[in-house]
Every structure is written in C-alpha cells, then in structure tokens.
Amino acid sequence: MNQYDREAIEAKWQKNWEQWELYHFDKQSTAPVYSVDNPPRYASGPLHVGHATHYTHIDFAARFRWQTGYNVLFPLCVDVNGMPIEVNVEKKHGIHMRDTPRQEFLRLCKEFADENTDQIRTQFNLLGCCMDPSIFYRTDAEQYRRLTQITFLKLYNEGLIYKGLAPVNWCPRCGTALADAEVEYADRESILNYIHFGVSGQDEDAIVATTRPELICTCQLAAVSPKDEKLAHLIGKKLITPIYGKEVDIIADDKVDPEFGTGLVMICSIGDKDDLDWIYKHNLPVENAMDGQGIMTNIAGDYKGMTIKDARAAIIEDLKKQGLLPKQEKAEQSVGSCWRCKTFIEFLQVPQWFLKTLDAREEVLKIADELNWYPEFMKIRLQNWVNSLNRDWVISRQRYFATPIPIWECNSCGDIILAKEEDCYVDPTVDEPPVPECPECGEQLAGCEDVFDTWMDSSISPLYITYWQQDNELHEKLWPCSLRPQGQDIIRTWAFYTILRSHYLKGGKPWNDIMVDGFILAPDGRPMHASDGNVIDPLDLLEKYGSDAWRYYSSTVTIGEDVAIQEKDILHGQRFCTKLWNIHKFISKTIAGPVEVDWSQLRTSDRWLLTQYSRLVKEITRDYEEFHFDRVIRKLEAFIWHVFADHYIEMVKYRMNDDEQDDALAHTLYTVGLGTLKMLAVIIPHITDEIYEQLYKEFDGVQSITVSEWPEPGIEEDIELTRGDVLKDIISAVRNWKSEQGLALSAELEIIEIIGPRIEYLMGSELDIAGTLKAKNVLLMAEAEVIETPVEIKPIHAIIGPKFKQYASEIVKKLAAVEAAEIAPALESGELDIELSNGETVKIERDMVNIIKVPMLDGKEVKSVNVGDLLILIGQEAD
RNA sequence: GGGCUCAUGGUCUAGUUGGUUAGGACUUCGCCUUGACAUGGCGAAGAUCUCCAGUUCAAAUCUGGAUGGGCCCA
Asked: Between the CA of A530 and the C1' of B7, what is the distance in angstroms?
C-alpha cells in the first residue's frame, strides 16, 4: 500500500459503484426488502449543510441494510412541484407567471427543473450516496402525477373531498390560497387608528381602535370585555359604522383585551385570525372586501377598485376630514405573511377543494402510535399538531407548476365531471373532458385551472415507490415501507399528510420506522442566514476534505438534535481516514487471509482484543439498527484508534517479523482489521472499499466491501478482558514512564519487576511485556521485598455509601483526617474501627478502600510505577 | 403566548439504570522522529456539569421552578 490519495480514491469508487450498478433494487430477488421513503430533494437552491448531513444519514441507513443482506429500495428522487421553482423561473427570466401563457410558463419551469436535476445527481454522487438511479423519479413525471390524480379520484368517490366556500389564507401577490403551514408570522409595526363610531339611540360616540380601517365596510359585530366597567353600558346597544352607517350589535366577550386600544373591538370579515374565530362563534356572514388580487370590491363603496393599501390611506384621509380620527399611534402586531414572497396575507372566502382531515384525527394518532419514532420525542410534536387541528386541508392552489386537478366543471350549472382513472394523467386545461358537454344541462365544460397543493404529491411518495397502481402484486409485497427519513420542520406537513393518505388509501401505516432529523446551525450556534453572513457551503468542505471526511462528520451528528457545525470536526474525519489507512498499511504485511486457529493458541493480548471486538460487533449492529450513527462512529473510532492501534498493535509489533508465521497474530489482525473495516464502510465507503480491494478482497471475495457480508461476533471471555487490561495498563504505564523520563520508547531496560496479588493475570504474557518494552528480564512476584509505605487511603464510595448510608460522609471525612500510614496496618490485617460522633463504632474492612502505596528502599523511593495495586519496579541498564 | 428540545473546561461535545479521579475532540504549553502514521505518540494546564430549591447516605444524572438557545405553532 502506498500513500493515501483521497481525491483519486473517492473519484474511483464513485465511478465504480455507478458502473457496477451495485445499488440497484432487484424486483426478482428473494432477499428481504428494505425500502426507504427517501425525501425527494427539492430542485431549487444550492445544496445546504442540512441536506448534506441529512442525506448522508439516510445513506447510512441504506448502506447498513445493503451490508446486512437486504434488497434495498432507495430511490434517487427529485421534487419540483410548486412555488419555489415558479418564483425562480420568474426571477431568472424576468417574467411574471400570470402574464405568461400557461404552457410556456410550464415549459420554463420544467427546463429549470431539468438543469437542477442533473446538478442534484452530481451532488449526491459527490456525497457518496447509494441512491438507486434505476428507480429514479421526479414529482412532475406523468407517472407520478397520474398517481396523485388517481388518489384524488378515489378519495372523491369515497366522499372525502368536497368543494366549499371557506375563508382561506390568501396571498394577494401570488394570487393563491395558502395552507396554514405556508403562512409565517412575524411582528411588524403598524398604525393603530382611533375612530369615532356612533351608538344608536344616544348622542355619545364610541371610539374603536383598528389597524385595518379599510375593513370597516365588512364590520359585523362589536365587542367589549365583560370585565370592562367603563364600557359595560354599551353592551346590548348598537354601534353605527362611520362612512357606511351600518348598525351592528355590541356584545360582551372574554376574548377582548380591555387594555388594547379603547377596549371596544369591531369584528370584521375578515381582518385576522381573531376575527375568524368570532365569525365562526357567532355564525356571522363572511363578506369579501377585496378580490384575489387584493383589489377592493363593491362592498367597499367609494373605495372599490383600490388596492388595500390605497383604500386604507383614502379612508384615513376621509375620516380625518370628517373629524372622526382623533388619534393615531404605533403598535406592534403579529402579522401573517406568505412563506415564499413574504407578502402580508389576507383572508378570503373563495371556492376551494378540501380533503376531510378533522374526521381522521383519531386514526392518524393511532397510526402514529404504531410507528417507531427516532428519536421518540418527535412523535409528541405530531400528536400536538393533530390535536390542535381545527380545519380540513385545503388541497387546491391557484398556481401553474403542479399536478392539475383532474376535473371539468360546467360553466352553467357547476356540475363536476371527473377524469377517468384510466385516462390519467390528464391536464384539464389542455385535454378534452371524457364527455363532450354537461350531462345535466348540456352546456360547455371548462377544465379546472386549479392545481394541487404540493403536499398532495409529496404525501403519496411511499405509495409511488412501492408500485401502487403500477404493479399491484409487487406493491402488496413491499407495503408498508421500512423507513421514512425526514426533517423535523415538516412533521406536521409531510409526515402528517402521508399518514393521513395512507390511512384513507391503504387503511394502515405507510412505514415501520420514522427517523426525524434536526437542524444544522452555523458555527456560532445560530441558524445560517445569508444576511448574517454565517452560511457554510458543504461543497467547499467536500472539496477541501473529501466525501469520507464529510460523512465522518455527518455521523457524529445525533439524529434529531440541532447542532452547530464545526469545521475542525470534518478535518478530524480526514485525519481519522489517514490513521485508518496507515493502520492497514502497517498490518498489510501480516494479513494473509483467514487463518483458522484454536482459541487456546491465542495469547492474552489476542483474546483481549477479540473479546472486545466481538462485543463491539454486537453493539455497533444494534446502534445502526436504531440509527445511532453518532454512537457507532464514536465506538469504532475509539476501538480502532485507541485500542487496536495504540495498544494491540503496539503490543504485537515485536511479533510481526517475517521469519515465522504467527497464526494467532494473523488470525487476530485479519478478523479485527476486516471486521472493523466493514462496519466503517457504511459511514466512510470510499477509503474502506479501496483498502478492502488492496488487502481483503482476494480472501473475502466480494466486488465491493459496501455489499459484503456483515461481521459476526465471535468468542468472548470476560477474564481475558481483565487480564488484557492489566497487561495493557502495565505496558502503557511503563511507556509513559519512559516518555516522562525523556527516554526513547525503544530504550532498553535491564529488568522489570511486577509485584502484587494480581500478577497471576500476567502469567504467560511475559514475552509480550519484554518484547514491547524492550526489557531483558521480566519478573513477576506476588509479594515484594521492598517496603511499601501507604500514602493515601481512598474510600470506595460505591461500597461505603450503600453500607453505611447516612454515616458514609462522616466516615469518609474521618478516613481523610488521619495519616494513611497509621491506619493502613489495621486495614491490612483485618478491619479498622472508627468511632462516630453519635458514639457508635463501625468497622471498615479492607475491600472498602484502596490503599495507595509508594515503595521505599532505605527510606527512599525507587523507580516505580503503580498500576492499581500492582507495583512495577524498573531497572535501567548500567544503572 | 403554547408544544417539543437543548444547556457539561476558552470552543464543540460523551455521559445507559443516581455511586471511585465527569470521558473525548479542538486550542494552549512541554517532551518524544519509537519497526504504519508528526494528519503521529506521551504528558501538563483548563469544568463549583446555566442558576435556585427539593428528594437521597450519595445528583451532571431524578423532581419542581427560573434564565438562555433551537425547531415548530399561535
């Protein structure tokens, strides 16, 4: 093996995997299937560190299953439907969607999506992801949209979809209804206008404070707080609106904050969420003061045809002229805005398509309970969301680039004609309806111009990837999916809607497991924002440190946690790769394929390592199954670097000469070297595949380590752990001692004497000690002839605590207060009596404390090192 | 305002069921070119485990409260 050439190796293996078609789902295979409902990457915007981390996490789950014998279904997929691409196309070409012919605009959207799709494929390759290009899908493909439309038809026929007038969140700029999830709330400063209203049957005025005076025309009701004494006399009277002169009731309502404005509130349809609540509560009519483009309607009287902003300015001007506006002041207000273009949203009563959601809440919660959530607490978020729902799901959108709603409507009687399932995919804005004219009244039919909310597409991804309505036999075999990985930010959208649709269409859960990932924050611990200048480009890091280093970093990020990214962690990943390379380079000359040996042929050091290795295999397997990638990498790194390399290899270096074959060594190195490499291949596949090819492939026999067989645990012997630990501690203690003395580690020693009761553990390891520490002689003695002086008595809390309970701390204090040398003999010979403050006497036994001793010779300390109760005396050459 | 979640040396973090000296990484300093690795090895320094209260012989760990991040919602 030569130097580790990261760039060449990563490029080579990315190419190999693709050319060898290693990660293709095999429909014919009889192996168990592991299916990943991979989140289609959205085809606009650059690759974010969040993507790069999240997708490698998903890749870990998939690669682990490839290596444990599954037939993995892990599609490469891209999402393109919806507004972000529309907005990007508008920006790119300097056009507006609604000023552009529909089909032309759709062509530009597709073109944009195509360009980005190629880029996404390249980026996934760079990350070393094993997504299957042979089952690639994009959410605008006719096959995909066909399925979305079929689900609509099925749900419609079951009476779960209805068209209704309903107040919806409305973005006047985009001209579309928004789901609640698409509305963002932020505080903004606005002007609170104090306006004189009349009160019927009396001379006095009442003043209402409002930020939306242009909505006075839709005023339906007025309210005061029942606790508000100064306004109590108004309850039951009628309020007369200025300009319009309309009379509305004044009622008492708990929701009114007497401290806000004047304490008198006008309730309009529809200014904000609170208005909506009152309108539902009091069953008031809903009037639209503006149309879909934010232009005032004839309800607004003289202000008809103005924009909302202009109308507000005009009515304020008029009120001022009439002397009805005594005061204006600034006020902080939480205002909803469009998630994409940030325009302030309004509420409009418009015809929309709804999918019944409220009726299914119980069932969705039941399914949520049947899923395994990783981490568990993410389930609570879904439950809270479901329990807080109060509206059905608006599934129609007044946009272009999404799946068309497959219906035609009669221009005259409004009859609805559904597309036929076998005709889907259809675009009603282009395609002919299944019947030439309205069957009810004979009038012309118009294709529906609305499209679906993109979650209508996204929420059938598990149905799509399991060949629902494409290959029913295969679908039944594949359903439900094994895993849904996704971000925590879309629990109440993607996860919720997918469960909902699975319930309606399949009557059960869509997957077995759901893995919910957290957020990657900037190094300063804040979210990354271009405006904060703290955005980190993962492509730069990939270029600088490589894919394996990035994947190493990614594995250290705990699933579901929000963590700040640190560049040094990626650098550390690169160093780990270098270390791994050098370890295998070093042991390569001793690797000679699998060597059968009897356990009895192995030395303590070998058994010590193999026992730990066997336990590691079990733990790592379980950690992978539970998506604890952070634990996997921590344990593997600690074992490979600090057990295998720092201790085992150091212990066996002297055995690694070419002259004689050491079967025990060859067996141990091969087993542990290959086994740990395989477990690492899930996380860092490039370097491990290269090492595998160079060292192990000829014996293990698979084309790529990434599809090799998972390692098996082996023999474990607890006593060997203890024995090996003592051996390891002795060796490292003496090596440290050499280092501290400024001696070379290769410095020869005349003699090493090890004294103490535990030397029995070292029987048989004398050669290892001598060979590793360059000592000419090694002596093991149960008892010392040197005089050891006790210098410290250390209580063992785990024994003293439970035994003496409330007296424990007093005993510990008493032990610390006396000279170690005074009480040590008593402890050694049997027991020590301690008198407590309450007059009682307790016995301290030998095993309740550690006695720390220092060897003395003629009253002087000798060169020695303590390892627990073992004493090591070191004799230097010519000393 | 509500739900969930996090808070550990200067920085980033580990810490299963409470129990010897709170583990690691980065940084800083010192030593070491030891048969693969100086992108390495050894050592030193550095933490009243955010704060307050409680349970307990014993709390980073359990309970309650406060404060401050993050995500989502209102």
From this structure: 27
